[in-house]
Write a structure and sequence with these properties.
The chain is an alpha+beta fold. It is built from 4 helices and 10 strands.
Length: 177
């Protein structure tokens, strides 16, 4: 098990395993499709963000690295990194709604970025966000990510939920190293 430690942060992340699958799905679905927390997409997308089977499948991908943050044996946060050539795609990023707006998400993101740069030798960080989520995009812009106009269709075919509004798209944000 890989543990990410950094003296600049007061959080420690560890590699996710299949034993985390059910709790991770609960966390991701609560953060993105629940009705509380500022990261909810529930007015834009319905259905689960991820299923345990999909999560276990992702964990078997050697290019996908998923980390969890636990406190008092409770899963509080998670973040994933998938390498694609020289780019690190950051996703599966969630903080439980009861722990949002505490700075924890920023620390988890910083851990993942350092891992992508220092361990995976990423040259650029990429995050995909529902383009209609201006508040979330503003958060990433404060973390140094930039918009360049790259937009994709919402990936309904990936079993990540059903759009509630027409014209929903995904915008890519980039952070050069």
């Amino acid at each position: 098990m890989l543990v990410l430690k950094n003296t600049d942060f007061d959080v420690e992340l560890e590699s996710a395993t299949e034993t985390h699958a059910e709790a991770l799905c609960d966390l991701l679905n609560a953060a993105y499709r629940g009705t509380s927390g500022w990261t909810t997409e529930s007015k834009l997308v319905s259905g689960d963000r991820i299923t345990p089977a999909d999560l276990v499948s992702n964990l078997s991908n050697p290019d996908f690295h998923l980390f969890v943050y636990q406190k008092s044996n409770q899963l509080i946060g998670c973040i994933g990194i998938e390498m694609n050539a020289t780019d690190a795609y950051i996703g599966s990023f969630a903080v439980h709604p009861n722990h949002q707006n505490t700075g924890l998400g920023k620390k988890i993101l910083q851990h993942a970025e350092l891992y992508a740069i220092n361990t995976l030798n990423s040259k650029r960080l990429v995050i995909k966000v529902i383009a209609q989520r201006e508040t979330l995009i503003a958060f990433y812009e404060r973390q140094g990510y930039k918009r360049n106009g790259t937009v994709e269709a919402y990936p309904s075919h990936l079993n990540v939920g059903i759009p509630r509004i027409s014209g929903i798209t995904i915008e890519l944000l980039f952070k050069d190293i």
